[in-house]
Amino acid sequence: MKRIIVVFLFLMGCGKCPEFVKDFNSDILSLEYFKNGNIESIMFLKDGKRHGRNLIFYPNGKLKVDAKYNNDICSDILTHFDSLGNIEVIYKIIVQNNRPFINEEIQYNKNGEIDIEKSRYISLHPSKDTLSKGEKFVLKIRLEASAYPQNKKDIVRKVFFNGLDNQYNIIDLKNLKVINLGDKKEVVLNIFPTCVGNQTVRGFLLEKEQVSKKSTSLNAIFFSQDYYVKGDTLISHYAYDLDFWKLVKDL
Fold first, then answer.
1. Residue-averaged pLDDT of the chain
2. What pTM was computed for the model?
3. Are residues 132 and 239 in the same domain?
């Protein structure tokens, strides 16, 4: 394996740089090569840490892993491909308490179709992204693939929203709202903003199975949706932190 470290500012002076190289403001680009001369990995570094897009390849030159890092933490989306270039799985990553977690997993079969039984994800459908003051924001949330088998019964599903910070910690239990899905896999949130400016609704879809009297199985898929309310910006403040999993067990 051959490794080359290139100072990024020097690299940016080259007119032959790939487009994805130009898209990221990193200090250093690290390249590793297979013995056959093909690139094995491309890593962007900032202050000695992975930052930006990181790519791993197969010896035949096909892309294997496409991931994004922020200050050495994998975040956003990680995509894994097979050696022919087909998508195998997409992981949607969230960061909670500065640690990355797989929030959603979308598996694909050999035909390029989503494998529902092996996947776990939701979809968000906002009414619009810009509102006038006093206008209602509507967000439809659909459970596309459950963590449990489709024919599994006695699964309690609820959607919780509001009262979460930007790392999905419950910080305002009094303002935490809940909707029981029952047997449905779709829910509509009707939100009436009290502030203007940039807004974000955060929450999670909780699935709970009572395995036994002493054992409970929990699965949470977190979500966030940005929208904008025309007018002057106001700021909300939250005062305290609460432990997420201890709270949701009894919700």
1. 82
2. 0.78
3. yes
